[in-house]
Amino acid sequence: MSLKQVLHIIDGKETASVSGRTFESINPATGQPWASVAYGESEDVNRAVESGWRAFESGTWSRMPATDQAQRMRTVSRLIRERADYLAELETKDTGKPLTAAKGDILGAASVFEYFSQIPDHVLGTTYPSDPGYFTYSRREPYGVVGGIAPWNFPFMLVVWKTAGPLAVGNSVVLKMAEQTPVTTTEFAKICLEAGIPPGVVNVVHGDGETGAALAAHPRVPKITFTGSTEVGRSIIRSSADAIKSVHLELGGKSPNIIFADANLDQAMAGSLFTSFFNSGQICTTGSRLLVAEAIAEEFIEKFHQRAKKIVVGDPMQSNTQLGPLISQVQLQRVQNYVKVGKEAGARVLWEGTPTKIPGHDQGYFFQPTIFTQVHPDMRIAQEEIFGPVLSVMTFKDDEEAIRIANNTIYGLAATVWTTNLSRAFTMADRLDAGIVWTNCPHYLKWNVPLEGHRTSGLGEDLGLESIKTFTKLKVNYINYGGHQMNWG
Ligand code: NAI
Ligand code: MG
User: CA-CA distance, 87 to 373, in Å (whole number)?
Assistant: First the structure.
């Protein structure tokens, strides 16, 4: 079978690498390559960055009237919606996620772009009380070229997150999306062109960590927006030092999902299955630590186990499949290794997911949910981001202990609480150190609401009107139209 050919997008054109190098994208459900992708090196990154600056300086987008920008951004959103089925199929082949979930991601991404299309008209400045004869005001100005780097768990959603905010305030972008899932990124850039976003505004360079590092360290990219592991986030901060770049980071998590005895336990059960295992646990906000009140622990955990066993792991193209394969052989090995680590540390395996063979998909990276109980909060499986369907269950005696265990990691991305007690809900919301606290609604996100990781989970805000600040720099102007006369020297 011939492979789908995927190229960079530079200057509005599909472009091969200067070196001619390519790499293959693997379909995780089959373990077979299905696309051949241009591999970018620093020369390709340079070209994309120069293309971004040419477009920025020409003003075709950066100085386009805001209402026209908004209209073109709405067109992007409409085209994404019209092609949702096609894009979902590509997304499923690249990620292995079930087709229904992929379609949900594509439609969600269309709404994100639609939300951001409202922003160009609302990039407001401030006026300040001024001395007589002075007028003082501030403006938010685009950086110029923003570099976007993202992982493979939500490729289309993330390419939209990395683009919509920067574009809405007038920047160009250079995107280096994940090497495991490059295909829909090029499709997205083509949709932007078709919608009338001028050539050079949205550039794509495919490649791996080296390509990403070249973009992150590029002296002519003053802003980087990165989503991915905390470790790479640290290296991006380091490589930003010479140019004193502004970096926006959304990093790892080890989010607690806390069940109090007063919770609506049916809802807590369904929501806990969802936050533990949805997308095979490959989400930064996965509730990978289940904390259950001692009073209800035994019964809750037993029911959870029975329900988890019924989750359908299978061919992502089948409509009844709930979990597809993990993203790659490397990830499968990482996850299996964590299961080993958990056992060696003395946690109890309530249910062990094994590499699963799906008929007709012998080479796929399938893995069933795995549940550890009797996990000590200091064990590696309770501290490190596994990024797979491996759950660590702990119990707590009272609210103070729940808070202590919940806050006891280096991360602070998200936390979920299940309770019907109003006082407890607000108290937990106060005391949990996480950028998002969900009470009775894990993974719930609205595009007009900002988010920011605490501690090692991130730096800076995304989404909502706050993203205007994230993707612009401040300028203040003092205008002397009849104030002081200069009489120095
Ligand atoms: P990663 O953080 O290495 O990769 C994310 C993106 O960064 C990819 O586009 C990659 O090519 C790029 N990249 C890698 N090294 C870079 C560098 N030095 N400079 C600039 N860009 C670079 O994540 P990876 O390797 O896919 O997954 C490894 C582990 O990281 C996962 O098992 C998981 O624990 C964690 N992870 C967490 C995510 C989250 O959202 N919390 C997302 C992806 C991974
Ligand atoms: Mg792939």
Answer: 39
